[in-house]
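Protocol step 4 of 5: obtain the predicted structure for the target chain.
Materials: sequence only (see below). No template structures provided, no constraints applied. The aim of this step is simply to have a reference model before the mutagenesis design in step 5. Sequence pasted as it appears in the construct record:
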Amino acid sequence: MALARSCRAAFAPVFRTRQLHTTSVLSAKKPATPAPARTRRAVPDLEPFTIDEEVLEDQLPAEDDAGEPTHKFIQQGRNMLYYLRLIEHEMPKLVAYRKPFVPPDSSRPLLVRSISYGGEAHPAAEKRTIVVPVAQLPLKNAAAVHKFKVLAGVRWSPDAPTDAGVSAEEGGGEHGYFKISCEDFPKAAMNLKWASDTLDRLLAAANDSAETFADIPVDTRHIEARIRKAKKGGHIYGRQTHRPSLKDFPKEWLPAPKPQAIAEPAGASIST
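Step 4 output (structure tokens):
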């Protein structure tokens, strides 16, 4: 079907082939710019590294070598044999440093206890504890012993502490035991010095006869609380020390005794 001349004039730009090219085609027709040539880095002329194969021979894994667990087991056996050899050959040499045990006398009554964690750093490793029987302290008389117990407070106990290293068969516990510890300072010697100085001050105050504290009883509430907390039968009322009786009450609380009747002689007769 032939188009009119006026329609052909309207569609003339469409029928031109040059107007149908896309942008990608036009860009492909452009001449490509050559890429810049890469410059190679100059490598210095180094001497070849020599490898000693004899040194690396033991480090290379062999096909018939055992696994890692087997090597660990063998290493444990070697360590055990090392210490067994020390026990067999080196321990007998320590006999030259043997000293006979001499029990401490009354001039050294203090028992110092420390805690060790096998060389590991721990805050409690610097703690020092002193335990001493009150009967072995240089106190002048019974009044000084009573005053020392009052001043000691909860640090005094009638029985030896379980961690003091004192057995019940040892003597000197008739007046109880005194225990004091310190861990406030960074060095163990400083903690021991503070505990020793505190004990010296207590002894000086107990031997001071200006005030005897004779009217103040010894406080045993901490002992009773410990017994109640243990719940081994002593927490029942009346079983902590002894059963209460009339002797435990103050005399002014007790009623006045009744006058006793005068007993007549047995052989007297009534006359009429």
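Step 4 remarks: Residues 144 and 206 are 5 Å apart (CA to CA). The helical segments are 5-10, 12-15, 23-28, 68-89, 142-152, 188-206, 221-230.
Proceed to step 5.
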